[in-house]
Design a protein that fits this description.
Blueprint (H helix, E strand, L loop, with lengths): L4 E15 L6 E12 L2 E7 H7 L7 E4 L4 E4 L1 E3 L11 H8 L4 H6 L4 H10 L2 H17 L2 E7 L6 H17 L3 E9 L8 H19 L4 E5 L7 H13 L3 E6 L7 H8 L3 E4 L5 H9 L3 E4 L1 H7 L6 H7 L3 E3 L12 H10 L5 H15 L16 E4 L6 H4 L6 E6 L2 E4 L1
Helix pairs in contact: 5-6, 6-7, 7-8, 9-10, 13-14
The protein binds N-(iminomethyl)-L-glutamic acid and zinc ion (ZN).
Length: 408
Amino acid sequence: MSPTLDAVVHDAAEVFVGPNDDGTGPETVEDGAVAIADGRVVAVGPTDAVTREHPPENAVAAVDASGGTVLPGFVDSHTHALFAGDRSDEFAAKLRGATYADILAEGGGILRTVRAVREASDEALLRGLLDRLDTVLATGTTTLEVKSGYGLDTETELRMLAVLAAADARHPVDVVPTFMGAHAVPESDETDAYVEAVVTEQLPAVAEQGVAEFCDVFCEEGVFSVAQSRRILEAGVEHGLVPKVHAEELTHQGGAALAAELGAVSADHLLHATREDARVLAETDVTAVLLPGTAFSLGAEYADPARFREAGATVAVASDFNPNCYAPSMPFAVTLACVGMGMAPDEAVLAATNGGASALDRADRGTLREGALGDCVVLAAPSHVHVPYRFGDTPVAAVLKEGVVVRD
Ligand SMILES: N=CN[C@@H](CCC(=O)O)C(=O)O
Ligand SMILES: [Zn+2]
C-alpha cells in the first residue's frame, strides 16, 4: 500500500527542525515546509523542494503556515498533572513566608493532594486529566510525562496509573507514565517501613500490570535519603522500570550522583546541583531536567544551565505542572528558562523539545528530521523567539500529532 500523505505544512517563515549535526544549535529553514506521511516526517526543507515532491493538494491536510513558524511539538518530560483538590491557599501561605518543606511536614502539600486523590473517583480523575491535556495541547505540548505519587498506597497508585493509560488512549497527547510511589511518606507511616512497602508491594504490582515505564523518587532532606532512594530505584530496575530522580531541589543530598550511578534517564530539578554533579551527569548521559516554573513558584533561586552546558550534559526544560506549580504551558517554561535562567531562546526551545525527548528516551520526537513523528506546532509568528517573547499569549495556530491536525 502506498503511504498516506497526512499533511504538508508549507510556506513557513521558519521551520525549527531540531539540533544541528554538531549539536551546537538549532537547524532552521527559511521559507520552509514539512511533509508527513503515515505519521512520520518524510521531507523537511525549503517549501519549493518539499511541495514539488509532496504537493499539498495531495495531502489529507494542507496547512498554510505563511509568515509563521513550525516547531516540533513540545515534549514535557516532568509533570504531576494527575491530581485532585485545591491548594491555592498554600500559594497564599508561601507568599506570607511558609516554605514548601514546612507545608509538607505539617501534612499539607503533596500529602493534601494524596487525601484528595484517594477520595476522588476514577471518573473524576480522568475528567480532570483530560481537561488538562486539552490545556497543554493548546500551548503545543504533544507528549506529556505524568507521574503517579498522589496515592502512596498500592491501590491508589495503580488507580492513578490506570487513569494515565485511559487518558493516553482517549487523547491525542501521548501520556508517558512514571511510577512515583516514593513521592512522600504517608502520614501514618515511618519512612523505612514505607520504603519496604514501595519495594515489596507497590513495585511488583505496578510491574505486573505493565503500567509504568519509569520509576521516580523524591530524594530530599526529610523525604527519602540517598540510601532509601537507591533501594527503591534498584528494585524498580529489577522490575524493568528506568530510574528518574528528583534531585537537589530544596537542598543538596546527592540525588544527581545517584542518578549517574544507576544510569537514570534523567535527574530533575537540580537547583542545588554542583559543577561535579553536572560533570557526572554529562559523563553518564543522564539528561538534566530543569524546571524553572518550580523555582518561580517557590521564589527560589533558579538552576544554573551554564553549569550543565559547560559540562556537556543534555539539558531539558519541562513544566513541572503540579498543584504547587500550576503552570501547564511549555512556552511559559521556555520564557522562564530565558528570563530567569539566562538561556538563549534557541537553546530553551531545543531543551523543551529535543531535550524533553532525551529525558523520556524517545528518539522518535523532539525534532522534525525525516523519520521523526509528525508532531508539530504551527505558530502565527515569524520565529521561535516568539515562544519565550510572547509569554501569556502563545500564538499557536495549529498542532499536529503524527500528521493529524488535532488543534487549530
Ligand atoms: N518536589 C516534589 N514533587 C513535585 C511537587 C508536587 C507537589 O507539591 O504536589 C515537584 O516536582 O515539584
Ligand atoms: Zn516533580
